[in-house]
Structure formats: C-alpha cells, structure tokens
Amino acid sequence: MPFEVRGRFPLDAIVNVRLTTDEKDRLKEDATLAGVSVSELVRRRYFGRPIVAHTDIAMIRELRRLGGLLKHLYLSSNGDHAQETLATLHALKAAIEAISNDHQED
C-alpha cells in the first residue's frame, strides 16, 4: 500500500513510539473525537497545527442554528422581548467565540 501524500511530499517515513496501554487508548479516543487518524493527530500536535474536535464543530453549528431560530422568533414577534432576545444572542455569540478561541490556543 503506497504512503499517503500530504501537500507536495508523500508521507514516506514511519516512527515507532512505545506507549502505555492507557496512553494509546487516550490517543485513539482523541483522534476519534477529532475525526482523524492517530498518525494525523500526532502530526498535528507535534507540528502545532490546530485540532478541532467534531463535537466542537457540531456544537458551533447547533449554536448558530439556535441563533438563527432566535432571530426568526424575534422578527416574527415584531420585536417583543427585544432585551431578552439580544441578551441571549450575545450569550450564543460568546459561547461560539469561546469554543473557537480554545482551538486557536491549542
């Protein structure tokens, strides 16, 4: 089986690392959450590339969906409860930014 090509160069080298069973299980779990292979997870961590968990992507998508529904509710109610709606939209925006910032710091 030929090695995968990333960018301009093929991934043509292998590094063997000894781990405890618990460490290996943690790597597999982290890779599964991020939706990547263990090899890709290790490469991203070592070379400082971002790792975004699928659960976080799904959460951001859901928060944006809720914001859209809240906007629709606000518009269809002719602005009733404007202060509460605005406060909730600000909270949704802050939550999305917090999740996004967590990945930029990693």
UniProtKB/TrEMBL annotation:
Pfam families recorded: NikA-like
InterPro entries, per database record: NikA-like
Protein name: MobB mobilization protein
